[in-house]
Each structure stands twice: as C-alpha cells, then as structure tokens.
TrEMBL record:
Signal sequence coordinates: none
Gene3D superfamilies referenced in this protein's UniProt entry, alphabetically: 3.30.70.920, Winged helix-like DNA-binding domain superfamily/Winged helix DNA-binding domain (1.10.10.10)
Species, as recorded: Streptomyces noboritoensis
Swiss-Prot/TrEMBL keywords: DNA-binding, Transcription, Transcription regulation
Domain HTH asnC-type: 173-233
Name of the featured protein: Lrp/AsnC family transcriptional regulator
Membrane-spanning ranges: none
SMART domains with a match to the protein in the record: HTH_ASNC
InterPro entries named among the record's database cross-references: AsnC-type_HTH_dom, Dimeric_a/b-barrel, Tscrpt_reg_AsnC-like, Tscrpt_reg_AsnC/Lrp_C, WH-like_DNA-bd_sf, WH_DNA-bd_sf
Length: 318
C-alpha cells in the first residue's frame, strides 16, 4: 500500500474531518462533490495509514488543570522513562525530543489537588531524572494536542481550545459520560449503536449525552494523522519568552499560523510554548526568522525538534 497522502481529495477529507469529526460520510461527500463510496474508500485507506478521529476532554470544563512536564534524563534512561510515563492513565501525551535526553509529558490533574499530584512528587526522586520543570498551562490558544495533527488543514473554529483552568464552569460527569470519553478516545467516529452498547444505554440517550458534552465545550474532536505522510518531517517544540504586555497577542497570532498545532501560555522561565510542524529545517528557520522573530514582545526563542511521539491524544481524566 502506498504510504503517502495521494492527492488533494485526501487532504480535503482530512480538513472536513477537522471541521466535524463525526460528520456522516454522505454529508462530507456532498460538501466535497464526490460520491459517498469514494469518501468511504478514501477514509478507509487513510485509516490504514494511521488516521484517527479522537474524542478529547477539554480540561478546564471538567475541573482539571493541564500541566506540561519537561524532563532531562540520563542518555540510557530517557526512552524507558518515556515508556513508563506513557503507560500511566493520567498522561495525555509523551514526546521524546531530539538528542534522546529530553522528554515532554502532558498530564491532567484536578485543579483542587494539582499541587499534591503523585506524579509531580514522584518524578523528582527518580535517579535517572537529572532535572524537571513543571509548567501549568494557563491559557491554551490553540490545540491542546500533541504535534501529530495535520496542522496544515486545521479548522481554527473547531480546534480544542482550553481557555484556562479556573474561569470556565465545571461540567459534571456521570458514568455514561465517562464511558463515552473512553470509547471516543479510541474512535471518535464510533457509531451511536456502538456507543450505546458500550454504555448500556439507548442510542437516543447517547445522543443527548453527546449533545450536552459538545454543547458545554467539555468534548472536542481532533484529527490524529502522521504529518510526515503529508510531507512535514520537522516537528518541533518552540519555547518563547514574551513580555507580559504582548503575551496574549503573540499567543493569538500563533494560533492563526497553519504551522502551529498547539500554543499555550505557561508558568516558568518561558511563558509561551508551541508545537510546530515544518517540511524541512530550512522551513523552520524561515518561520523563526520571518514569522515569530518579527512579532513584538518576543525576548528569546528556543527550539527542540521532536525525535518520537511515544504517546499521543490519550484519555486522561483522573
């Protein structure tokens, strides 16, 4: 099987799924001007290449705070620690940076108990962890994701934006909601009968729960697809130090850039972190030099290319 995205129709299908990950194939076919059978065939091919539509919890609407952990490890231990973090149910994504000694981990913790989280207490006592910095995500401007999204085709109005951990009203969850989150984390396009069977509820009840979660902003849908199949081979974490007066404007500007899959204001020495996807190192250079380097208020920029995504877009509701 050809391991590439073949043409413009594949790319438009990815975009359509980003606009509405649960849209019926007949609607997508109508919007794209092709037959439903063609869309189904293309979707199945992309699925075989690794495409996932993933249901994601929006942390701030569920009483959760999202933290980004940045670890420097001994060269022989980074991979092992990354795999151990990936096995934890409270981690959202885990990434190894180039060089093999630095890794990143996103974790959701209850706002009320975020300073007593066992992971935040355990990691500093791990001998192979040379240093650790924990950054609370204060405002997520775009994404709340790993860097593996088809960023080029992101629909900004449908991206999971987590507008802070304290201001949003918490959405209470029942047992059915928890089941739906777990099932949609595996397949965001699971059918109503499939979800109803998993939750032991009627399809009409499941539809009401989905409408409530999505309407309240507690559930979002994301497209997970390897950008290398789209020709983007340079996934990079970007750390920025921005003057406070320009932090919001820079974050909102990054959210409009098609290269950026994720951007958030965070605590720590760097107050803004982003994930970008580029075709080549030269494209990354041009982006830093001509796009973000020209924005007012930026005092320093650090880049850390991604070596491997160990875990991405997993359910993380404590």
């Amino acid at each position: 099987m050809d391991s590439r995205v073949s043409d413009d129709l594949d790319q438009r299908l990815l975009h359509a799924l980003q606009v509405n990950g649960r849209a019926h194939f007949s609607r997508i076919a109508r919007d794209l001007g092709v037959s439903e059978r063609t869309i189904i065939r293309r979707y199945q091919r992309l699925r075989a290449l690794g495409l996932r539509v993933v249901g994601q919890p929006v942390a701030s609407r569920l009483g959760l705070a999202r933290w980004l952990l940045r670890l420097h490890c001994t060269p022989d231990a980074a991979g092992t620690i990354a795999e151990a973090l990936a096995r934890r149910p409270d981690t959202y994504w885990v990434t190894l940076a180039s060089g093999g000694t630095e890794l990143y981990c996103a974790v959701n913790v209850p706002v009320s108990g975020q300073h007593d989280n066992p992971l935040l207490r355990k990691l500093p006592r791990t001998p192979q962890v040379l240093s650790i910095s924990a950054h609370c995500m204060l405002r997520i401007f775009v994404g709340a994701t790993s860097t593996w999204h088809a960023t080029r085709f992101r629909a900004d109005h449908n991206t999971a934006v987590d507008s802070g951990t304290c201001a949003a009203t918490r959405v209470p969850l029942d047992a059915t909601d928890h089941t739906l989150f777990a099932e949609l984390a595996r397949d965001g396009r699971a059918t109503l009968p499939e979800l109803a069977a998993a939750a032991d509820r009627s399809p009409s009840s499941i539809q009401r729960h989905l409408d409530r979660l999505r309407g309240a902003g507690a559930l979002s849908l994301a497209v997970d697809f390897d950008p290398q199949l789209l020709g983007y081979h340079m996934a990079t974490r970007i750390w920025l130090n921005v003057t406070p007066a320009h932090l919001r404007s820079v974050g909102e500007t990054l959210a409009t850039h098609p290269e950026i899959a994720f951007a958030a204001a965070v605590t720590g020495d760097s107050n803004l972190v982003a994930s970008g996807i580029f075709r080549t190192p030269d494209d990354l250079y041009d982006y830093v030099d001509r796009r973000i380097g020209q924005l007012p208020g930026i005092q320093s920029i650090q880049t850390a290319p991604t070596l491997r995504e160990v875990k991405r877009l997993a359910l993380a509701i404590p």
